[in-house]
Design brief:
single chain; about 60 residues; alpha+beta; Multidrug-efflux Transporter Regulator, Chain: A, Domain 2; three-stranded antiparallel beta sheet; 3 helices; about 15% strand
C-alpha cells in the first residue's frame, strides 16, 4: 500500500530533486500540501498533478 501523504524528503526522492527544491515549489504554489499539526505533508496526488502539468508544458514529451 502506498502512503497517501509524504514528507518533503519523500516527495523530493520521488521527484528526483532536493528537499530545498520541494520547499521552493511549495512556497511558489506549484505544489500543494496540507498541514497536520506543525507538520507539512504532500499528498501523493499533488505530485502526480505537478508532473502532469510539467508534461503539459512541454507538449507531453519529456524535456531534454
Amino acid at each position: 500500500m502506498h502512503t497517501l501523504l509524504l514528507t518533503t524528503t519523500e516527495a523530493a526522492d520521488l521527484l528526483g530533486v532536493s528537499r530545498t527544491t520541494v520547499y521552493e515549489l511549495l512556497n511558489a504554489g506549484q505544489l500543494e500540501s496540507v498541514r497536520i499539526g506543525r507538520s507539512r505533508r504532500i499528498p501523493r496526488a499533488a505530485l502526480v498533478a505537478y508532473v502532469d502539468r510539467l508534461c503539459g508544458l512541454c507538449g507531453g514529451e519529456a524535456a531534454a
